[in-house]
């Protein structure tokens, strides 16, 4: 095709035709029956946020014990436990706010509670030298990061459980 044979672009209409393939409209959505909904829930179990927080707490305590055994330093153990608290306490507030009895499960509510969680973690980090005198930053930050990674591991495990 030579440049003279091409027709000039007519604006949005021409680009719309070239960008979007012809598709059939989706069939109307049919509501699930009670049995279908129960079968779907049984097939894809939900991940409890409280269970994830419990695992974060377990990981935090185990890492603190490892710091204590490896270093023999009580300050390192306290710093590690404080790191676990920095990860767990804001998550507890967020889960309580989002899933609690008066929790609003809207996108806006989720964003507000996420902001509260981030600010709470930041505030706990800011006051950490005051709360734990002689703070061992490595112990605190490593424990905090490992506790935060529990969420990702839980999501990976849930994905693997769904496949089997």
Any chance you could write out the topology, listing elements then pairs?
Layout: H1 12-19, H2 34-43, H3 49-71, H4 74-99, H5 107-126, H6 128-131, H7 137-163
What is the element string, with H for helices and E for strands? Answer: HHHHHHH
Query: How many separate domains make up the residues?
Result: 1
Give me the Rg, rounded.
25 Å
- The coarse overall form would be elongated
Provide a descriptive summary of the structure in words.
With 164 residues, the chain is mainly α. It has one domain (48-163). The chain has seven helices and no strands. Helix 3 (49-71) packs across helix 7 (137-163), helix 4 packs antiparallel against helix 5 and helix 4 crosses helix 7.
Keywords:
mainly alpha
Short structural description:
By secondary structure, this protein is mostly helical. Helix content is 72%, strand content 0%.
């Amino acid at each position: 095709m030579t440049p003279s044979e091409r027709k000039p672009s007519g604006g949005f209409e021409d680009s719309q035709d070239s960008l979007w393939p012809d598709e059939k409209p989706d069939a109307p959505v049919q509501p699930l029956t009670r049995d279908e909904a129960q079968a779907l829930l049984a097939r894809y179990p939900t991940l409890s946020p409280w269970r994830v927080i419990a695992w974060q707490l377990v990981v935090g305590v185990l890492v603190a014990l490892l710091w204590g055994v490896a270093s023999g330093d009580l300050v390192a153990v306290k710093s590690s436990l404080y790191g676990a608290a920095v990860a767990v306490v804001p998550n507890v507030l967020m889960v309580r706010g989002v899933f609690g009895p008066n929790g609003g499960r809207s996108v806006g509510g989720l964003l507000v509670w996420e902001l509260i969680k981030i600010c709470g973690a930041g505030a706990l980090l800011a006051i950490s030298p005051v709360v734990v005198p002689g703070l061992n930053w490595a112990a605190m930050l490593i424990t905090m990061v490992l506790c935060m990674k529990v969420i990702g591991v839980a999501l990976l495990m849930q994905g693997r459980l769904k496949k089997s």
